[in-house]
Amino acid sequence: SAWCQLCEVTWQSKSARFHLTPERARVLATSSKAATWREHYMQALLDGRRQNLRPEELSTLRWAFNFTPSAGGRGAASMQFVEFNSAAAGGATGYLIMRGYPPLPYKLIEDGTVLDIANFPPHYVRRLDTWEWEITNDNVTFVSCVNDDVQYSDRGFLQVTVDDVMEQAGGLVARGDAEQLLRRGGALPPNIVLFRLLHSVLRGEMGAEGE
Q1: Terminus-to-terminus CA distance in the chain, angstroms?
Q2: Which pairing describes strands 80-86 and 140-145: parallel, antiparallel, or unpaired?
Q3: Distance (Å) of CA 43 to CA 7, 34, 36, 40, 101
Q4: Predicted confidence (pLDDT) per residue in 35-93, tens digit
Q5: 3-state secondary structure of 43
Q6: What is the Cα gyration radius of the chain?
Q7: What's the whole-model pTM score?
Q8: Beta carbons of 73 and 156 less than 8 angstroms apart
């Protein structure tokens, strides 16, 4: 039908797990026997616009992690895959399992729009155009993906660009210096990271005084 074709074309532009493969067509047919292709299309579109991450999605999806360039991220060289192990099935609390750290307690709050991890700054949830999920703060990025195929290139996640360095440095690095830094394959110098942190703190304090 025309609606089936529309589903196929629309979902092809999304993450691979949403593609209308023969397997997914069988799943849709058996799970919603009375639903029409128009209803499948509308339901998928509605769900793709949902901005609140569900606890069961956090614990069952595949997640890639990386630091931002300002926090020492080096593109693909520093990326790793991590797991959110929920304390109970479908629960909003559990432990983040990642290389280089002990298990870190987490809690999904604010109706699935904010993720607290240990004592780190809050991480904010955002739905991507691919219908995958992005969870970020100034220092780190988590992205949901299919298997090990990470279709995400923002925030220096897979490759750090000159623009990434300049954005993460908050205007404290000139373009020529950023280009030289990338040629050396290094992270932002510690003094730049410190200045950026101090600037962020001072900006926060000034904002609080003005309230």
Answers
A1: 57
A2: unpaired
A3: 11, 14, 11, 5, 39
A4: 999 999 999 999 999 999 999 999 999 999 999 988 888 888 899 999 999 999 989 99
A5: helix
A6: 20
A7: 0.77
A8: yes
